[in-house]
Amino acid sequence: MPLALYHRRMGMPPADRLGIDLHRADLELMAAKRLAVDPAGLTVPQYAALYVLADSPGISGAALARSCQVTPQAMGVLLKHLTERGLVERAPHRWHRNVLETRLTDRGRAALELADERATEVEQCLADEFTEAEQEQFRAFLNRAERALRHAADDLG
Amino acid sequence: MPLALYHRRMGMPPADRLGIDLHRADLELMAAKRLAVDPAGLTVPQYAALYVLADSPGISGAALARSCQVTPQAMGVLLKHLTERGLVERAPHRWHRNVLETRLTDRGRAALELADERATEVEQCLADEFTEAEQEQFRAFLNRAERALRHAADDLG
DNA sequence: TGACAGTCATCAATGCATTGATGATGATGG
DNA sequence: CCATCATCATCAATGCATTGATGACTGTCA
């Protein structure tokens, strides 16, 4: 076997892998958002949780986890940190004593608004790169990709 | 102030935030890849590292980190795990005694090929969702987004 | 009433990723 | 020759996220 072929190509050349471009773009997005929300003392997942919480006060941790697309365990840790820092409050539901209602505190709302101002700049910068029509095309591509990948996951599972 | 406006909208409505769609698609991609490489006993970042390593034997940990778009520290932990499991080997460079040359072991190569077979299926499933022309458009959108976001990060930093 | 399914919270183990700081090494230039 | 700079590895702290397992509670259905 020729040495030149020993380090042979894997199943598909990297340049053809759309997933690589998708992931690279997302890494850049997360890096920018991290920079944006950092001055507010928040991480990106914390910002996401507060953002949902602002529109859904009293939501359960599990429901919040679904909204943020993470597992309940991950959200539990995140909420524990936010509670310790006084950005959210959790209290047992009046009837369903098993669920902990979660709400923003004033400090939490303040941090969210500070973070959202800069996070919005990132989204605006992203939007400004595209015309309205392009944004629609881009969004459609992303949603089709998401759907295709969900089917791929179903097949593999 | 009317109660209906108390939970007021943040800076930009969620439906307008392209970043949300981008991130959701990436989450789905990562979930599918996770399922794909799991039977090989690998995580997605481990698969990525082995993939680069297969084409760049003897690369340094820091260079590998750059290729995989993570910090050297993150790559260090990852390589520590892979070394302990015998999937890669690390040895001091002959001249630059400070750098550790990293190489796949046979077991590492076997795991990579097993993982790559299924990971390629995911990429194929993604590619099959789009025509050739659409793939090029999609890729162009992603690269423009990446560029715009890098500039956004520069502005914020 | 009593079994069952669904939802919620939580503990534990593992792994990824970041910032910040430290120290070793090799190349560059005064 | 020595100072400086860049690169590399590594330690430590913090936080995100996953799977797996456990226990508590609600409501339903037999």
CATH class descriptor name of the domain at 39-129 in chain A:
Mainly Alpha
Radius of gyration of chain A (Å): 20 Å
SSE arrangement of chain A, N to C = HHHHHEEHH
CATH homologous superfamily assignment of the domain at 39-129 in chain A = Winged helix-like DNA-binding domain superfamily/Winged helix DNA-binding domain
Give the total of beta strands of chain A: 2
Corresponding CATH architecture of the domain at 39-129 in chain A: Orthogonal Bundle
Quaternary assembly: homodimer
**SSE class of chain A:** mainly alpha
Helix content of chain A: 55-70%
Low-confidence stretches of chain A: 1-7
Helix count of chain A equals 7
Q: Characterize the main sheet of chain A.
A: 2 strands, antiparallel
Strand order of the largest sheet of chain A: 1-2
Biggest interface: A-B, 66 and 66 residues
Which of globular, elongated, flat, extended, rod-shaped describes the shape of chain A? Answer: globular
Q: Mean pLDDT of chain A, rounded to whole units?
A: 93
Which fold name fills CATH's third level, the topology of the domain at 39-129 in chain A?
Arc Repressor Mutant, subunit A
Beta strand % of chain A? 5-15%
Could you give the distance between the termini of chain A? 36 Å
